[in-house]
Design brief:
alpha+beta
């Protein structure tokens, strides 16, 4: 798989104009203009750059990581460094909007270098593109115009700080709009919780706990065809509990059934549930239930 370490080499490869700055490029359509069109297709590639793009008129699918981004009118697409990208000639790139690409080293030494890693939308999957309202589109557009003005000017000692400040503002607005999108997706997130619970139930019923141990959240998310970050963000937003907490609830519920079997020791119950260390199981059980597994068994033991 081909990897591009510099912004210039990446833009050269996809057929876009060379940047004005070695670590930053800004494309912005205005009036009747269109964004420059990249090459028609590409096998899987990776690069060391962030991309923030608002695509207003695009058709087709872009493979991003293990999933596909479904481009629709008014979609804000955020891509992180070293994610696998792939597209074919079914993608129509004639579009309006903006595209900002910058090497991860462009942020070195700034607060944004750490903050940007906390924005979950850079790792989202197919259904998580941000769909902007006209008002939101206008707000982001004005920020991009400020970035473009500074980008086109002769660079001086203040240029980078000003551009990074605008990027920080752009991402904070994007985060606000994603929060709004989460609030408007209650039905979707409830469906996601239902799918999550179903996936855990399938895993428990299949006997894989004893064979493979407790599943990772990444593994569950993969089975659900969503990203781990999106799954975690959505469940936390709508239920107040993390994906790990939801998983633990299932394990504790299963533990209660097994604990009522008097022929099994606490250690055997722990191993059956996929815990490598029985003391950890006992601590988790007490944390969730307020009593130890032994106390639970004594309290509810069958006569």
């Amino acid at each position: 798989m081909q990897h591009f370490k510099t912004l210039s080499s990446y833009l050269d490869y996809i057929g876009l104009p060379r940047p004005e700055h070695p670590m930053l490029s800004v494309f912005n359509s205005k009036g009747d203009g269109y964004l420059p069109c990249p090459r028609e297709s590409s096998p899987p590639i990776t690069n060391d750059c962030y991309s923030i793009s608002f695509k207003k008129y695009v058709e087709g699918n872009l493979n991003y990581g293990r999933t596909k981004y479904d481009f629709t009118n008014g979609a804000l697409i955020c891509i992180a460094p070293r994610q696998v990208l792939q597209w074919d000639n079914s993608v129509v790139f004639e579009q309006k909007g903006f595209s900002i690409n910058f090497h991860e080293d462009f942020l070195k030494g700034t607060e944004l270098a750490q903050q940007i890693k906390k924005y979950g939308f850079f790792s989202y999957a197919v259904n998580e593109a941000l769909h902007l309202s006209p008002k939101e589109e206008k707000q982001l557009g004005s920020i991009v115009e400020n970035i473009e003005i500074e980008y086109q000017n002769n660079h001086d000692a203040f240029s980078k700080d000003i551009i990074v400040s605008h990027l920080d503002t752009l991402l904070k607005y994007a985060n606000r709009f994603y929060e709004r999108q989460f609030l408007n997706r209650k039905e979707l997130s409830n469906d996601l919780l239902e799918k999550f619970n179903k996936q855990i139930a399938i895993y428990l019923e299949s006997g894989q706990l004893q064979e493979k141990g407790i599943p990772s959240i990444e593994q569950i998310a993969d089975e659900m065809s969503v990203s781990q970050r999106y799954l975690s963000d959505t469940l936390k937003k709508e239920t107040g509990k993390t994906t790990t907490e939801h998983l633990h609830l299932h394990l504790i519920d299963e533990a209660k059934n097994i604990l009522l079997q008097p022929d099994k020791s606490i250690s055997e119950v722990a191993y059956e549930l996929g815990f490598e260390y029985p003391p950890y199981f006992s601590r988790l059980f007490k944390k969730k239930e307020g009593i130890s597994p032994t106390e639970f068994r004594d309290k509810y033991k069958l006569n």
